[in-house]
Amino acid sequence: MLLWLFIANSVQAKEDKEAYQDCIFQYVTGTEEPSVSLMLTNACKKLYIDNFMLEEKDANYNQCLLDNLQSSKNKIASLKVKQACDQKYRSFFN
Questions:
Q1: What are 10-50's pLDDT values in tens digits?
Q2: How far apart are CA 94 and CA 42, in angstroms?
Q3: In 3D, which of 50, 82, 91, 38 has the Cα closest to residue 64?
Q4: 14/50 Cα distance (integer angstroms)
Q5: Predicted model pTM
Q6: 3 state SS for 4-60
Q7: Which among 66, 82, 63 has a CA at the least distance from the CA of 74?
Q8: Buried/exposed code over 6-22 (b: 16+ C-beta within 10 A; e: otherwise)
Q9: Please, is 41 exposed, middle or buried when counting C-beta atoms within 10 Å of its C-beta (0-12, 13-18, 19+)?
């Protein structure tokens, strides 16, 4: 039974380099703030490269960053967006 769960997780979590590159093209290209660019790149990486054992709440958190950080113009605003995504998807009270 345990082996079956391991195999199922291995199939589910796979590196998708093409999707990662598409994510970079869609979300990182055109960002002006270096910290935003880094956060978006990390979110793409978590979703498409380092996704082994990625929980749904973490996937939703990273997607929230992608959906809301791209238009952020400064570091303070980007940190507020990051905090809001964290509270919405990673809070112990969710």
A1: 445 578 999 999 999 999 998 989 999 999 999 999 999 99
A2: 23
A3: 82
A4: 8
A5: 0.81
A6: HHHHHHHHHCCCCHHHHHHHHHHHHCCCCCHHHHHHHHHHHHHHHCCCCCCCHHHHH
A7: 82
A8: eeeeeeeeeeeeeebee
A9: middle
